[in-house]
Design goal:
This protein has about 120 residues and is mainly beta. It contains no helices and 11 strands. The strands form 2 sheets. Strands 2, 4, 5, 6, 9, 10 and 11 form a 7-stranded mixed beta sheet that branches. The protein has a 4-stranded antiparallel beta sheet with strand order 1-3-8-7, with no helix packed on it. The model has no long low-confidence stretch (mean pLDDT about 95).
């Protein structure tokens, strides 16, 4: 009964901002690495941002300085703050949580939320 429910996508103008949310349930939230991926039409899915258990963050070069990943353990929710949006940011965005353990990998994905950047 692990669930990841995304929200916050929509249509914004170039230069605008959006905040995506991913609410989780059925997991021990603090033990997972958390990430956002995106997939544009005709493109491969790419990793956008991640945050590790100890709080270390990493970003794909194209979003550095514009996007920020965060989490709120009390709310079991992760976020992606997106600023200075560009048309090339248009994609379906997916949240993901995962961790390795002695027997393998636990890996869960949200349903995706559409972000469209257009004038």
């Amino acid at each position: 009964q692990v669930q990841l429910v995304e929200s916050g996508g929509g249509l914004v103008q170039p230069g605008g901002s959006l905040r995506l949310s991913c609410a989780t349930s059925g997991i021990t939230f603090s033990t997972y690495t958390m990430a956002w991926h995106r997939q544009a039409p005709g493109k491969q899915r790419e990793l956008v941002a991640l945050i590790t258990v100890d709080g270390t963050t990493n970003y794909v070069d194209s979003v550095k300085g514009r996007f920020a990943i965060a989490r709120d353990t009390a709310k079991n929710t992760m976020y992606l703050q997106m600023n200075s949006l560009k048309p090339d940011d248009t994609a379906v965005y997916y949240c993901r949580i995962y961790k390795s353990y002695s027997l393998g990998l636990r890996d869960y994905w949200g349903q995706g939320t559409q972000v469209t950047v257009s004038s």
